[in-house]
Design a protein that fits this description.
This protein has 136 residues and is mostly helical. Helices cover 79% and strands 0% of the residues. It is built from 5 helices and no strands. α1 (17-44) packs across α5 (117-135) and α2 packs antiparallel against α3. It is flat, with a radius of gyration of 19 Å. The relative contact order is 0.15.
């Protein structure tokens, strides 16, 4: 028996180009976070590694929420609550970073690298894309 293209059994969810890139960025950010924890553990001890881990967890979580929000908006599901959620997210980040700075006031370098971890992951993805497209 031949399945038709409209059959519900043959429908698969196909990831868009954006979703594939977002997943690569998230995997890169998780890898960078793991490497950073190891580096800061070796360099500054457990407090240094915990400060970086807490900040990078907040940053990677924020990156995941952003990617998920863009997926939701791209699917056509919009509401004023989504926009409010994007704005409130930055207030939550400010509170979390403030709390981390209170717990680890002398670990500003680790907190700096943790906050900017997604930017490095996005930059590495852009570098990968430019290298990949330059070869094809």
């Amino acid at each position: 028996m031949k399945w038709s293209a409209c059959s519900s059994a043959s429908k698969k969810t196909v990831a868009t180009d954006y979703q594939l890139k977002a997943n690569r960025i998230l995997r890169c950010a998780l890898g960078l976070a793991a490497a950073g924890v190891a580096i800061f553990l070796f360099r500054g001890g457990p407090d240094s590694a915990l400060a970086f881990a807490a900040t990078s967890a907040m940053s990677v979580g924020g990156l995941w929420v952003l990617a998920r929000g863009i997926d939701i908006l791209g699917a056509g599901r919009t509401s004023w609550l989504k926009g409010l959620g994007f704005v409130l997210r930055f207030f939550v980040y400010a509170i979390v970073v403030s709390a981390i700075l209170k717990v680890y006031p002398e670990r500003s370098l680790e907190i700096f690298f943790g906050v900017f971890l997604p930017i490095l992951a996005i930059s590495l993805e852009a570098l990968y894309e430019s290298f990949y497209h330059a070869r094809t």
